[in-house]
FAD-dependent oxidoreductase
Amino acid sequence: MTTTFPRRALLAAGAALAAPAPLRAQGTAMRLLVIGGGFGGASAASFARRTYPEVQVTLVEPQPRFVTCPYGNLLLGGERQIGQITHSYDGLRARGVEVIHDRAAGIDAPTKRVRLAGGAVLAYDRLILSPGIAIRWGAIEGYDEAAAQQMPHAWIPADGSQTLLLRRQLEAMPDGGVVGFAIPGNPFRCPPGPYERISMVAHYLKRHKPRSKILALDAKEGFSKQGLFQDGWRALYGDMIEWVPGNRDGRVVKVDVAERVLETEFGTRHKVDVANVIPPQSAASIAAASGLVNDTGWVPVNTRTFEARAAAGVHVIGDANIPGPMPKSGYVANTTAKQAVAAAVALHRGQTPPEPVYFNTCYSHVGENYGISVVGIFRPNADGTAIAEVPNSGGVSPRGDLPEQRRLEAIHADSWYDSITRSMFG
């Protein structure tokens, strides 16, 4: 059974507990190197500079600006423009972070060196690795990088081009067309993300192409906030959305780009006008190339420090790790970034890392003035072998005809996005 917590009380608790207490400076300045400038990496760099001003912080990120996955779905729904979800690293520079726009090509953990694609080699005392995800090209037959230019995944924002491509395809589709979604099995980045995307595409179609349909083919039998999403779909979009679970032949195993066909495991061929294929994923390539992943394709980590099990001194945060029951979300990336930084500084000083508590709040927009959410609090178990949800700490939005509740949750979602990106980027 889940419990719904008052939003203000939960956020107050999160603010009090999510940021570990600073430790006293001892000895020479520590060199903290952060790879990846997304929700995990930018949060780590920003938190390190604000909490441990004596630490030298360097951030390596190939993109000159960061386009967020959160709120990318609102771009598809016509509620945001690309500039509103694009962020500069100038604020981090102003905080004293050295930002290098290059790609990390290799990690030598024994010598504490990182080689960049441009040829430079950076030394560090502790490394925060937040590389994000990689698409498993070929996991769906026929879906490779070339296919993604016709059937966009829009799941790694990079410069925003994939999300904009999907938006243009929706705009070009005739009224009465079919938008097909291929949704992967767990684990993947942002568990509620595909269903918020379905909602926002339906929001756009209802306004501009109301005779159109959405076919959502899902490898799973259920999904995050399912009842809340489906309540919203019925209330807002009628019979526009058809969701097909895996046990009803919903798992897409093959695509035909030329014919715009999604084929499921029992041979059913679904012809669509626009296809959003969200394929299976793994930790980004540098994690695999550095020997940090296990046979799942993700990085096992210490539950208290987020050090990779395979490499001491390399703390892996964000979507690339195996976080137990915690979802691969922006909020989790942010809260675990703070613990990883605090643990890295403590270990460098020969001190015991602070006892961690991890938080998650995941908002989703279902329509205009219609928001829903799920929250959770997590901590390592007694022997640190696993992360578990704190009993009775989880909560979801209440179900029912609650327009004021939905409106307020949409406002809370907007406030969360503004707050977390301001914290990350200044």
